Amino acid sequence: MRVAPEAQSAERDEQHLARLVRGRLTELIGPDSVPPASALRHPAFHSLAHAAQRAARRGDVNAGVRGRFTAETAAAATRVVATAFTEKVHDLWQVGLPGPERHLTASVRRAAAQVAAVPGRTTTADEVVIGAWNDDRRAALRASCRLLGAAWPEMLAELAVVLRQIALLDGHGLEGFTDFTVHGVVFVNSERLEDAQDGLPGSVRFAEALVHEGTHNRCNAAAVAEPFLLPDSGASPLVQTPLRADPRPLSGLFQQVIVLARSMEFYDRALRAGANGDAVRERRAVLAEQGRKGVVTMRAHADSITVHGHSMVEEAAALLERSA
């Protein structure tokens, strides 16, 4: 992986991850009950593979558990076929626009619980739910994808490889998130489809969200094949990050730096593509400043980063510093 989007390397990492999902499910329920790896890129199967891994670690594997996972895998396969990628959001991208599917609602519950656990947090996300994609929301999404395709076709191509579903969030407390347990989904609050009070167009806001959350998905898959941090870096202290008030692990900061560099690059390209306005330029400046702060902290922890991770940080730094 590089900071510059690459559909081909993303495809390799997604194939690798799908093979791991198949391997985990095969260990539990046998090869005859598991769909081919090409089908296992759907987030529902990632969710089952993580559940299978947790069961194995607990030693909670018996005939009853195997039977339950066999049934759930078959049910997931049926759902995936029934909700095939029929939504054409761009000439180059078909993606699922789901309702409240089981793996998605479980992920939202986990995210809401994490929000509630943040010290000093005064708001909650208890009432956030998976929203419905009506015609107006679909039209707004297509406008964002047209902008992204015109401004940064390489980014759109990578998203088309990595993402299987775009889940809308209705309610307050969660602006958006990514969950590796359901890899291949981006969760974005439906308010991002609308123009902001400061004048930032909804098409720009949602395109930024796709870049942001899509990059988290991309980093998660890439790190499985080639880690960005050294094995013992998980024991390093929590660090302050540009995008979160609470201290985060170094892995979180690493991803934030890549996300911010890509997001700033999106705004540069959007401006060149005609997305003008003070709000667009101001948002771009904020992202650039946040990214540069993140780079400073990452460089202070250089002894925790792999060679590949270091090259990624420096690629992001060059992009962000070029804009200073």
Quickly list its features.
globular; AKG_HExxH; 324 residues; alpha+beta; HEXXH motif-containing protein
What does this structure look like?
With 324 residues, this protein is an alpha+beta fold. Among the domains are: 7-82; 227-324, no CATH class. Helices cover 58% and strands 6% of the residues. The protein contains ten helices and six strands. The protein has helices at residues 7-29, 43-58, 63-82, 102-117, 135-151, 153-162, 202-225, 250-272, 278-300, 307-322, and strands at residues 88-90, 93-94, 129-130, 165-170, 176-177, 185-189. The strands form two sheets. The protein has a four-stranded mixed sheet, with helices on both faces. Strands 1-2 form a two-stranded antiparallel ribbon. A hairpin with a 7-residue loop joins strand 5 (176-177) and strand 6. Helix 5 (135-151) crosses helix 8. It is globular and about 60 Å long. The chain starts with 6 loop residues before the first helix and ends with a helix. The model has no long low-confidence stretch (mean pLDDT 90).
